[in-house]
Amino acid sequence: MKKTLAAALAAALTIGAASTTFAAANPFSDVPRDHWAYDAVTQLAADGVVEGYGDGTFRGDRNITRYEMAQMVAKAMAKGDMSASDRALVDRLAAEFADELNNLGVRVSNLERNADMVKWNGKLRYTYTSNRHDVTHSKVNNDALLFRLEPSAEVNSHWHVKARLDATTNMKNDSGSNGSDTVTLKRAYAQGDYTNFQVKLGKIGLSSPESKVHPGSGNLLTDEGAKFSGAEVTFGNKLQATVQAGRYAFGGNKYNGTINPFASGDTSNYQSIDLKYMSSKWSFGAGYFHLGSENFKGAVIPGHPYKKDGNDAKDANIWRVFAGYRFDKNSALGGSYANNAKADNFDNAYTVEYDYKGAKASDKGSWGAYVAYRKLGAFAAIAPTTDGAGYNQKGIEVGFDYVPFKNVVLKAKYFNGKDMYVPAGSDDKAQNLFGRVEFLF
């Protein structure tokens, strides 16, 4: 009897131990092909954080085991110098493959699988501008302080919810931009990421595609804070197409002391489509941008109403092209052109820019500089974010940025050129000075 009971207990313990073992993830089982870890490691490989397989590549075209994935994560954990976003990815991967890392002898310090469900990034930014216009014999100085928070919450392996919250105060008057220091919701959207496909739904950031190819060139059509309410779909790899549709609200009525003819507080229908191709050396793109509103009939620059063939226009049909070439890791040349087919005057805008190096917030001591010629016709460049040149101005712009400490970025820009809308015989000279310091977290 005792022998029978002992045998039964031994069998039960053996089965229990085996059940526990089989319940845990098999380190040699394949990571499912649609697992978020593939996208994470691909991003880390592109940023140079992981080396993938021993030959320095990450072959995302075949499944890999959890053990192989843990090996790559372990190597990434050993690297100390990486961006905050890459560090967050590594931490998340370490939590996911904690068991395999422990088996490899890699210590994971109390990481919980869901500890990073919500992440917060942000910045504190001080900006100084000084704008001079000889036509009005005016000089306008402004200094503003902005505090920004950008939360990102994980919904599942493919979807995240993201937002942007801004609060701005005028340092001179010690008051908010609208008389109060209230926090404003600038963006709020759901983002789904799949292989060569991305979708965004909600209040989304709006930017020209050329800024994503050569960030120093800025946005020719829309400013850094521009957003619209609607949907965006992007698909493709090296050749990408982006389609946007929704409602777009114009912002304030000034930019660098110059007149923004469309800024009437109006909201218009908005649709756009962009195509872009990127390689290690070349980048090309083209796009179409449509806005429609009855209030466009009242848009005017002194002496120049918004008309087409002498008739009131209620649409803006803007097409654009851009191209860029990277000579080496330090220098690049880029340019973009836009034309509004619904305008009789100030209907085109273009910029040509040479960039050298570039400041990287995570790299102390890094710096960059550029020189550009810009012409920003106000009925084509509806909300540019070049920071130096403003609406309906043309001339030369130079800029410099520097990282004195990690995640602290200094920027300076200077524009010297002309206002394009001055009355005949008036002095059209204009100068703009721009300075900024950003503390990123």
UniProtKB/TrEMBL annotation:
Domain SLH: 24-87
Signal peptide: 1-23
Pfam name, any one: SLH
Keywords attached to this entry: Signal
PANTHER family: OUTER MEMBRANE PROTEIN ALPHA (PTHR43308:SF1), OUTER MEMBRANE PROTEIN ALPHA-RELATED (PTHR43308)
UniProt-recorded name of the protein: SLH domain-containing protein
